[in-house]
Amino acid sequence: MTTKEMVYAALFAALIGVLGLIPPIPLGFIPVPVTAQTLGVMLAGCFLGKKTGTISVALFIVLTVLGIPMLSGGRGGLSVLMQPTAGYLLSWPVAVFCIGYFTEKAWPKLKAWKLIAINVVFGVLLISLIGAPVMALITHTPVWTGLVGATAFLPGDCIKAVVAAVIALQLKAISPIEDKLHRR
């Protein structure tokens, strides 16, 4: 891993933390609020790629579990792994790896619609498919109820998927993915 990649990983961990400063929007019927942090997860995957993006999100999670209040609403500590949001948080490394993997595959002929589709499938649907059942288990509700409740996130998450794709495409020239292609 190059120094540049390490710096990017740290910066994106910080970016996800900064996005947590935006106040969460509680929905009332589901114990998981709407946050801006999934935008950072999607952006890490489609800008940094699978390896650096995953390291960035893993660093964020480690810092959060160690007690730094980086989650939306100023939450941090080991207890976040026992809260209804735990499944969503733990889905982020999987999601960022998948987003990064498929972005790297499509990179030479990357189009906006491809990047949006990658973000929707892995940054929206995959996160919900992992997070909602874990939330249901923690809250002792049926998994189906958790999945239905998670549909409330779909409109906002789809907007975040588009925003992340547009930003990543605008910054494509300075992406670590671009550097990897030129080193080969």
UniProtKB/TrEMBL annotation:
Which InterPro entries does the protein's record reference? BioY
Q: Where in the cell is it found?
A: Cell membrane
- Membrane-spanning ranges: 7-23, 55-73, 85-103, 115-138, 150-174
Cellular component (GO) terms are:
plasma membrane
What name does the UniProt record give this protein?
Answer: Biotin transporter
Q: Name one GO molecular function term.
A: biotin transmembrane transporter activity
Predominant subcellular localization, coarse grouping: membrane
What Pfam families does the annotation carry? BioY
Q: How does it sit in the membrane?
A: Multi-pass membrane protein
Hey, which family's this protein in? Belongs to the BioY family.
Alphabetized, the UniProt keywords read: Cell membrane, Membrane, Transmembrane, Transmembrane helix, Transport
Name its species. Answer: Paenibacillus albilobatus
